[in-house]
Design goal:
This protein is an alpha/beta fold. Helix 2 packs across helix 9 and helix 3 runs parallel beside helix 5. Strand 4, helix 6 and strand 5 form a beta-alpha-beta unit.
Length: 199
């Protein structure tokens, strides 16, 4: 990071769009608000509700391409959702889908940052834990930052009560705040080459 303004293409499902947050910020808005860049950060959220990693893998490059600028420090933020579990995708397929996105981003010299799926329905807990661990392994092997949101939130009282106060699946204000905190404290500023805001 230097003189070029930051441009973040954020791909994912309804969670990157902040659906369910009465403030309308989601975790992306909260993270951008705490990103101390010299120039305003351009964060472009490209969300498809209910999307699996297969769907994301098929569309991301064309959508992100249109938003890159030679006058910007272009970066890719991947917010992975929970739809792979509901769709019955194998762990091997989910891993491959993420690997393909990260490999293409690396070939194109677009730095990537991955945010894993948070806890959802209790019945999906074991499968989501496995999915998050699989995604973490793929990212770690490629030296790409990975934020595990599942393990810290699976038994977090505030997260669980926030889900329970809504539809049991989407977080609300407190839940998105927790995801944002995890992102900000898992290498976000270092990835951007910015000083930590100390929060």
């Amino acid at each position: 990071m230097g003189e070029l303004p930051l441009r973040l293409a954020v791909i994912g499902d309804e969670l990157v769009a902040g659906v369910g947050d009465p403030k309308g910020l989601g975790w992306v808005g909260r993270v951008v608000a705490r990103t101390p860049a010299a120039e305003p950060v351009t964060a472009l959220t490209l969300a498809v509700p209910g999307e699996t990693s297969t769907g994301l893998g098929a569309r991301w490059e064309a959508e992100v391409d249109r938003r890159l600028s030679p006058e910007a420090d272009n970066r890719l933020v991947i917010g992975l959702g929970r739809a792979d579990v509901a769709a019955g995708l194998s762990l091997a397929r989910s891993r491959l889908n993420l690997a393909n996105v990260l490999d293409v981003a690396e070939q194109r010299r677009i730095p990537a940052f991955v945010v894993g799926p948070p806890p959802g329905a209790v019945a999906d807990g074991d499968k989501l834990a496995e999915l998050s661990a699989a995604y973490a392994d793929v990212a770690t092997r490629r030296r790409v930052p990975y934020v595990d949101t599942f393990a810290p939130l699976a038994t977090h009282d505030q997260w669980l009560s926030d889900l329970a106060s809504g539809d049991g699946v989407l977080p609300r204000q407190a839940g998105y705040g927790l995801i944002a905190w995890l992102v900000l404290h898992t290498g976000w500023h270092a990835w951007l080459g910015l000083p930590d805001d100390g929060a």
